Amino acid sequence: MADRAKDNPDEAADFETAIAECGFGFFNLFILCSAVPCLMAMVFSASALSYVMPSAECDLDLSIVDKGMLHAVTYAGMIISAVPWGFIADTIGRRPVLIAGGWLDGFFVLCASLSQDTAQLMAFKFFDGFIICGPFAVVVSYLAEFHGKKHRPYIMLFVGLCVSIGSMILPLLAYVLLPVHILFKVSSMKFRTWQVFLAVSSVPSLLSGLLHIFLPESPKFLMSQGNYKKALDSFQRIYKMNKRKSRESYPVKRLTDPTPDRSDDLDSTGRPSTLKERFSRAKSKFLEGFKQLKPMFSNPYLAISLQVYCLHFCQIMCVNSVRLWLPQIFATMNAMDSLGANDTSVCSVLDHNANTKSMDEEEKMVECALHHDPDSYLDNITVAGIGLVGFLIIFPFMRFQVVANHILKVFLFICIFLVGSLYFVKTSLGTMIVSAVYLTMMGICATTIIGMSVDNGFAADHDLWKTWICKWQYVAADFYAT
Questions:
Q1: This prediction's pTM
Q2: For the domain with range 2-259+281-481, which CATH number is right: 3.60.15.10, 1.10.8.60, 1.20.1250.20, 2.40.110.10?
Q3: Alpha carbon separation from 353 to 66, 329, 331, 362 (Å, rounded)
Q4: Which of 110, 150, 177, 457 is deepest in the core (most CB within 10 A)?
Q5: Is residue 70 within 8 Å of 61, Cβ to Cβ?
Q6: How do residues 27-39 score in pLDDT, each as one tens digit?
Q7: Major facilitator superfamily (MFS) profile domain location, by residue (predicted)?
């Protein structure tokens, strides 16, 4: 098809032919770099409170229920906003979601860092989850829609690596910042170390919103909307940056897609739109969004979708039952080791955390001081490091069909025994090793399942809605895991 486009420039080209002509170069590297802070922002939003809890519990007098609620409100915001964000991204576009979502999320994370009590922190973390759900799921489809068949399978490898890198940077940041004693006042407001940590965690979101200003709208989205003029302009821009040639030398001159060409209707007509026209366009986009959702509830997609969603929900609920509480567990284990406890198993740690309310003030102050020990974050760094190495080792083997076909079954089967063995482990070292291997395998499974959703959705041409429903299952499982 690509050769025919070169031989006959008047022949209309489909998306795969047009994107293949753009090649792979500087533009692709820039869009991948722009996606890194967005993917890291999701990790920071979901996990930052896990590292804050051991420090903030003393300042805010948090109970075990308060800690669970603080974890849960972030995912509650994601659950509520998941499908609406998907509709917005499929009607207005991917780029506006990435820009506005990044800036808004950064704003709410900064507001969370200014919180003076538990209620304020819960409220702003809810809005943090409500907003970040948009950019995170959009960026996966956005990346896939700028790459051809040759490079698209590696997108999920890139996403998995970025998530692993973000999971590595977060405990490193906690290791550097949280042990430092910071306390200052601005008027009647007090600011402590954990609030500075939260403020720093807003940087990836703000950076993501800034970088995506310099990128075009997804050409696949524009073609699905019938806006072939802007889609061709996006292709020409990619071609110019990758090939270092003029836009006019781009071999594809016309695009084809099942969607009728509506470029003239979508382009500006030279006069302001009336309120009736704007309402009519909004109504049309709303109906189009539901038309895109309809095929998911009919054959042949319904049975496959339900299997994927159920698998993803159960898998994420299992992994986050461990992941979200791991920083608190390690901090408590470190404190118990320092106080000379004989049993530092996970069960003992959970009992200890549940009974903190019964401690007197002096005991609480001693334990709070131990939570600021840098050693309490070393296990988290090790777990994240093992996860990153696991992704680097496993994903090159995903090119082999036998690995791709059986990795989910094998890893999930092994993880049954790994998570069960946490009950019998009695030392912090044993807990760290078992949880690291477990989380690495489950993280690879999660990325594989999302990759299946995006790949199958691309083939069905309803990719973002499929990814969004899968994302809804993802955050719902996180919510139940807390």
A1: 0.78
A2: 1.20.1250.20
A3: 12, 9, 11, 16
A4: 457
A5: no
A6: 999 999 999 999 9
A7: 31-482
